[in-house]
Specification:
The chain has about 240 residues and is an alpha/beta fold. It is about 35% helix and about 15% strand. InterPro entries: CutC-like (IPR005627), CutC-like_dom_sf (IPR036822). This is Copper homeostasis protein cutC homolog.
């Protein structure tokens, strides 16, 4: 699985051309990715046929802040537009998961609604949690959660690699049923060790943009990742 951050329909088209499997749709990368408009989602949805996970985040950081009601309204509007995959995550002041906020927002977007329930990713808030294992176990029964986007550390994959490998060994145990999707300072040279450990989902943003965040997604850059991921998994 190769997920690429998109901000616009142009990004989405290039990501699909390069071989992305899924998009994470955001706005305002200066704040590390906030909720896009309903109109942007509709335009992206019309431009490509890839699955699109929509960011639900109103401000920089991982607290709900004062805009949570507005965020719920935006989430409901996106859901009514047809969005059924989301990315979210909130922490309380003590570094634990804000379970009330997560539950409320997932209910707004239809997680737990049966066969057509929305699916969602808990994003890199886990990398700033006081207790990663405890967070996972508290979220384990929330409907729709199928992915953790994580670098293993707030400082990125270079620092978090040992944590990622250790968590991969626990796949399928209580609290570790959701897939690990690695992102956050991810480079091509990280892939052999991660893939050998059984991790098979990867998330890129800046790596898909040779000109930085001021430039669009480049299909050739995405294609380089696609080529590497289509190669045989290295033997541990």
């Amino acid at each position: 699985m190769l997920e690429v951050i998109a901000l616009t329909p142009t990004d989405a088209i290039a990501a699909q051309a390069g071989g992305a499997d899924r998009l994470e749709l955001v706005t305002d990368m200066a704040a590390d990715g906030l909720t896009p408009s309903r109109e942007t989602f509709a335009a992206v949805r019309s431009a490509v046929d890839l699955p699109v996970r929509v960011m639900l985040r109103a401000s920089d950081g991982f607290a709900t802040g004062n805009a949570f009601d507005a965020l719920c309204e935006a989430a409901a509007a996106l859901h009514s537009e047809g969005a059924d995959e989301f990315v979210l995550g909130f922490l309380a002041d003590d570094g634990g998961v804000d379970l009330a906020a997560v539950t409320a927002l997932t209910e707004v977007v239809g997680a737990g609604g049966g066969v057509d329930e929305s699916r969602w990713t808990f994003h890199r808030a886990i990398d700033r949690a006081a207790d990663r294992d405890g967070l996972r176990k508290r979220l384990a029964d929330i409907p729709g959660l199928d992915t953790y986007l994580t670098a293993g550390s707030a400082r990125g994959v270079d620092d978090g690699l040992p944590t990622l490998l250790a968590e991969a060994e626990r796949a399928g145990t209580p609290g570790y049923e959701a897939h690990i999707m690695v992102g956050g300072g991810l480079r091509l040279d990280h892939l052999p060790a991660l893939r050998a450990a059984g991790i098979n989902a990867f998330h890129i943003g800046g790596a898909a943009r040779p000109d930085g965040w001021s430039g669009p997604v480049d299909a050739t850059a995405v294609g380089q990742w696609r080529t590497v991921l289509d190669a045989p998994v290295p033997v541990a």
